[in-house]
């Protein structure tokens, strides 16, 4: 037991007992390193617990480097190739943790996500690692043989210092900018962190209109010049959410517009022309209600995004084509995002230019590693961020 004063030595001190830190601790312990994992929170891996609606979308079987954003799109390739979704699935199966695919390659636990936390903790214990919660770091100094770290439970020296303290998303869960502070202390650049996988908020007329149909969802294509996503969109009291919106938010910058194809995947011109032929006396609103939720159609009509047309017989095919074109390129300018309060992840982070893509080790400070979300590698929605946490931790533990 520590008195809080004597100096303890570990081969690796890991700051952050989240997905990446716990996974690293177990892998490094298996390699024979004496590992201490510390976290300022009362409980480890709280984001694993709440993830995927409580069932943790722990990986995506379609993972490729193209599913990640980074200033250097090549950086994640090596780690992702050396620890794959199949590798993680194999681990779950050895622990008898049931899983299923929901959609788009997204794998979830059959039971609660706590099963994954139990697995991570059991593996850390089995590998001889120590976990110390409610512990903070107040100072880090370089020594001849590694690092001297002042923690709230006493001084620790370590040959390796592994920063796994995550990003800034959801401050009320204990997110801090600790990793960025350490990076800057040791001369690393930090790509400006920004909220990602986050709902958009709107102002003025759009905000009122969207709030009125809050809860309505429909499949769309959300795009800008950098990316496009075919998934569901949800109207909310403050603006827009749903998977398609969360995805495009990661590629959005302040003051930019986004384009929503409300008729994504539908052959709308053919459907509307066929409806007109069968029901010439019906209204355009009735026709559109066969393709879109009726509350959305009513909102679009009230906004003037749909022409007033009580009898389809009066609507030319050219007018139908023009209408479809408008609804396929519904251009919106969000006022902003919901910010750190609800962002699922942090884009940006420790600049990969200063890290080895093989090991996540600092190129300038031997023994210093950054893994998981604090690094400037950000996954799409759908299990990619945990896959990065596992893969980057695995890469660092091989070093
Ligand atoms: P993570 O944030 O998990 O862990 C960091 C740890 O460091 C925390 O335990 C924290 O307390 C600790 N810490 C922070 N600052 C510290 C300090 N100064 N001192 C000591 N300790 C400190 N991803 C996915 O792939 N599938 C999914 O289903 C979901 N779902 C999801 C839902 C919600 C609501 C959120 C907010 C996020 C997700 N994610 C997700 C994203 C995923 O949770 C995230 O990318 C990983 O948890 C990142 O793992 P890390 O270990 O890097 O950081």
How would you describe this protein?
This protein is of the alpha+beta class. It has two domains: 236 residues, FAD/NAD(P)-binding domain, CATH 3.50.50.60; 139 residues, Beta Barrel (Elongation Factor Tu (Ef-tu), domain 3). The protein is built from 13 helices and 21 strands. Strands 1, 2, 7, 8, 9, 10 and 20 form a seven-stranded mixed β-sheet that branches. A seven-stranded antiparallel β-sheet has the order 17-16-13-14-15-12-18. A hairpin with a 2-residue loop joins strand 8 and strand 9. The longest helix has 14 residues. The radius of gyration is 25 Å and the shape is elongated. The site of dihydroflavine-adenine dinucleotide has 35 residues, from helix 1, helix 2 and helix 13. This is NAD(P)/FAD-dependent oxidoreductase. It is an enzyme of class 1 (oxidoreductase). GO terms for molecular function: oxidoreductase activity.
Q: In summary, what is this structure?
A:
The chain has 399 residues and is an alpha+beta fold.
Topology:
Elements lengths: L7 E8 L3 H12 L4 E4 L7 H5 L6 E4 L7 E2 L7 H6 L2 H10 L4 E3 L4 E4 L4 H13 L3 E3 L4 E7 L2 E6 L2 E10 L14 H8 L4 E7 L3 E2 L2 H9 L4 E7 L4 E8 L3 E3 L1 H7 L8 E4 L6 H11 L5 H6 L4 H10 L13 H12 L1 E3 L3 E2 L7 E6 L17 E3 L7 E2 L4 H14 L2
Parallel strand pairs: 1-2, 1-10, 2-7, 10-20
Antiparallel strand pairs: 3-6, 4-21, 5-6, 8-9, 9-10, 11-19, 12-15, 12-18, 13-14, 13-16, 14-15, 16-17
Helix pairs in contact: 1-5, 1-13, 9-12
